[in-house]
From TrEMBL:
Coiled-coil stretches: none
InterPro entries: TPR-like_helical_dom_sf, Zinc_finger_MYND_domain, Znf_MYND
Segments forming domain MYND-type: 18-55
UniProt keyword list: Metal-binding, Zinc, Zinc-finger
Protein name: Zinc finger, MYND-type containing 12
Species name: Sinocyclocheilus grahami (Dianchi golden-line fish)
Amino acid sequence: MSATINLLANPKGVKKLCELCQKPAKRQCTKCLVTFYCNCDHQQTDWTSIHEKVCPLLVSIRAPASFGTLQSDREHHHKETLKKKVLEIEAQRWVSKKRFQDVLLAALLFRRWAIRVNGSCAAELVPAYLLLAQANIGLGSLSQAHEYLSKAEWTVMKTPGCSHTVLHQLHRTLGRLHAATGKYTSALTHFANDVNVWFGQYVMSGGYFLMVDVFLKQNKPGIAHSLYTEVANSWHAHLCKLIDGISRSGTQPECFDEAQCVEADQMLRCILEFEEQCVNPRPDQSAMLAHSLAMLWLLCNNYTKALGYGKKAEVLIQGLNEQNTLRESIHNLLQHAEKHLE
């Protein structure tokens, strides 16, 4: 175990609780300084299961606060909130990589800290319930996923005015659960509700993308193909807009975090593979998808992948005379990627 043990005498009035069993704790991780344990066995167990992965992320919030004043109480609450956020972000990152056992461990900790910060009935617990549901769906524990989703639905019903982000995550996760249990009509309803939440924005394409798997299971390839086309067009338009904005401003802001980039890459590659395996493949559509992947990785500063997909798009576009605008965009992207790799 890399993190050493620090025996603590709990400051008066401050209750340190074991990360695993919530009993009074006298041991502390000396790297992050924000997790505590009642004995070395529980510290070792937590280290090997999840803490080794999140400990470096918690170092930034390790500054100890003195207790006994209103200001110190605020600082303590701020630290608790930051740890909750770190765990949520880490769990989301593992969702995108389909590391569902890691998601489960991080989400359980996220829920625990959310309860500490916000209470056991707060709307802030919904993201934790959804992450736990996603982890269990990925692990095949569908009844457990249903239980967490029921808690999420009930909390949302009691909390009017929930954010679009929460509603979209709820509908997508419910849709995934119903699709996994063979309830295809209910799955499509939830994915359609997800699309309605984000109507008019590129992120609604995720709902359409998830519908495709359901329609393929229902042996409706025509509908699936048309939805993939809608998703591909939506992403291409959005990425072109981002690239154009960077060209005009001369600066490249961070457009996607790691989880969003991985999710978008998986989605676009899946559609590209589907397009290339069709009985009547469409080179123009494949070129557009390869161009989208090149733009995505350019925005994520991975110039090697951007160059690879850009060259693929360049090959696909050859012989398509009507695609002059797309050809010019591909050419400009290749020049940009090659310049950064020199």
